[in-house]
Amino acid sequence: MIRQWSEAFNAHDAVGVAALYAEDACVSHPSYREPLQGRKAVQDDTLAYMIAVPNVTSELTRIVGDQDCVAAEITISGVHAGPLVPATGNLPPSGRRVRFPLALFCRFGPTGRIVEEHRYDDAPDLLRQLPH
User: Fold this and answer.
1) Taking the model in full, what pTM does it have?
2) Burial, 105: exposed, middle or buried (Cβ in 10 Å; 0-12, 13-18, 19+)?
3) Dihedral sign, CA of 103, 105, 110, 113?
4) Shortest CA distance to 1 belongs to which of 83, 114, 116, 118?
5) Residue 66: CB partners within 8 Å, gap ≥ 6?
6) What is the pLDDT at residue 14?
7) Which of 25, 30, 113, 114 has the smallest C-beta neighbourhood within 10 Å, fewest atoms?
């Protein structure tokens, strides 16, 4: 499933990424004011990132799984060419290349879709790569 996530992400297919999540999925990240609730929220969040970094790619480094849970280490990279809206406020396009690690911890429901996900990245490192 995580490989499918990476393939859809690399194809810039926000709908395809979101389709891997349950309708009532909950996705948290330390920078989110509130967890993302539902497939549509995941799709909107993914699309916003793809607009901010239109040539974004993900590279799977490691996947570890046990029963209904998977942890994945991913490297995200691309050029910041659109507005990025982290918790610190809107960052206008910088034209700078960014590269940062992302960790996903996913729990799957009985349908095989992601029902719960915790995302962690090095936000301070990402922000150091961008003017603000």
Assistant:
1) 0.91
2) middle
3) negative
4) 114
5) none
6) 97
7) 30
Phi-psi region of 124 (alpha: psi -120 to 50; beta: other; left: phi over 0): alpha
Structure tokens at 131: 């003017």
- Tokens 């389709």 belong to 19
Two structure tokens written together for 95: 């034209």
Per-residue pLDDT for 16 more than 70?
A: yes
Is the CB of residue 62 less than 8 Å from the CB of residue 75? Answer: no
pLDDT for 66-100, tens place per residue?
989 999 999 999 999 998 876 556 788 999 999 99
Write out the DSSP string of the chain: -HHHHHHHHHTT-HHHHHTTEEEEEEEE-TT-SS-EESHHHHHHHHHHHHHHSTT-EEEEEEEEEETTEEEEEEEEEEE--S-B--TT--B-----EEEEEEEEEEEE-TTSSEEEEEEEE-HHHHHHTS--
Residue with tokens 């790569």: 129
